[in-house]
Each structure stands twice: as structure tokens, then as C-alpha cells.
Amino acid sequence: MNANKKTVIVFSGDLDRAMAAFIIANGAAAMGNEVSMFFTFWGLNILRRPDKVKTQKSFLEALFGRMMPRGAERLGLSRMNFGGLGALMMKYIMKQKKVNTLRELIETARALGVKMIACTMSMDVMGLKKEELIDGLEFAGVATYLGEADESNVNLFI
Amino acid sequence: MTEKFINAKGLQCPGPIVQLFRETQACSKGDILCIEVTDQGFKKDIAAWCKKTGNELLSLEEGGGVIKARIKKN
């Protein structure tokens, strides 16, 4: 086990939870840790590109794609979302208090060398294609996650 | 040995330690970093950060809502 390694599973696609995941990941990287984040199920929506990308999809995949938020800027809150109004209010307050936006946190994570891994099985289930996700990701499955979790001394499920 | 000043005032967690980490990577062993922060969590965070990264906290003071820390890179 390596006390300098941390792994995070990002299962949720809620704005607040995604922010918590990235704040912890960036903090860990700034402590000199090697950090891997595994994005699965709704967490994949955090990594979607904000623009529409043309892809070949089945009817259900396309429907899923339309119903899920397209990227970090369109996520809702886990509580008090009120159809997106809560998320807007939260973003307004965060801006006032100079808290980094989720997009900025993702950029910082990338600059600090945080590994971001998209779960290919979840991508398949939800009909998300590689070209719909942001650049700089790795694509892997559960064995990769388990391999890295085995070596790390902190593993979070968010 | 050089001394570097970092203005991290106004940054929220984890901004200050991220900035400090980046600056320490850019300087050499023995260099002193002087950082000013307004995020109140930094007061405790800096000790944990120094312990984990193996750097030395030379001084920590607070005044007027600003926390000042001097760190020696090891």
C-alpha cells in the first residue's frame, strides 16, 4: 500500500457532490499524492462536452443523452435544486465568495496530473461515446480501478 | 536561497494549498515561501500540508483576517 495514493469513485452527477470530489482530489494532489478519479454512471455526465456532438446512437441511447445534463455547467444540486434554480443560486453565491467553479476545479485537477478515468461499461449502458466527453480522459474498467484502489490508502465513493 | 512571496488572499479551499504546492515545485531546496491567505481553514491546513509534504513551517501569524505563513522547502 502506498500512503501517497488516493482513489475516488465519482458515481453521482450532482453539482455539489462533483465539487466535493474535485476539491478533495485537488487537495490530495497538492499534498503530493497520486490521485485517480473513476467516473461511473451519473458521474460521467460531469465529463460531457457542453456542445452537441453528432454520434450514431440507438433511439434509447439518444433519449438518455437528451435527458442527462451535458457537462459540468449544467448539473443540478442533490438537494434544494428546485428545477435548476437552486443550482443557479448556489453558483451565484459561490461566485460572490470566490469559490472556484466546477469547470475551474476540473482544469486544476488536470494541471495537477489527477488521472480521470471513464468507466467504459457505464458509457456503454448510458450510450455515451468517447467523442462526447472532454479531452484528457482514460478509458478503463473495474480491474483498473481495483488495481489502483489496492495500492491507495484512501478510497472515496461519491 | 531565495524568498518568495505568494498572495493567495481571496482564494477559497483548496486554492491556497494548490498554489503553494505549485510554487514549491518551482523552487529549490532551502528556499523560503511566504504566503498570505484569507481562507480561515488554512490555519490548520498548513500544518497538515507541511507534515505531509515534508516541508518546514517556520512561522504562522494572523492579523486583520489575514493568515501569514513562512515555509521552508525541504
UniProtKB/TrEMBL annotation, chain A:
It comes from the Bacteria. Pfam families: DrsE_2. InterPro entries: DsrE2-like, DsrEFH-like. The chain crosses the membrane at residues 20-47. Keywords: Membrane, Transmembrane, Transmembrane helix. Gene3D superfamilies: DsrEFH-like. This is Uncharacterized conserved protein.
TrEMBL record, chain B:
Gene3D superfamilies: TusA-like domain (3.30.110.40). It holds the Pfam family TusA. Transmembrane segments: none annotated. Residues 6-30 form the UPF0033 domain. PANTHER family: SULFUR CARRIER PROTEIN YEDF-RELATED. Belongs to the sulfur carrier protein TusA family. This is Predicted redox protein. It comes from Pelotomaculum thermopropionicum (strain DSM 13744 / JCM 10971 / SI). The lineage of its organism: Bacteria, Bacillati, Bacillota, Clostridia, Eubacteriales.
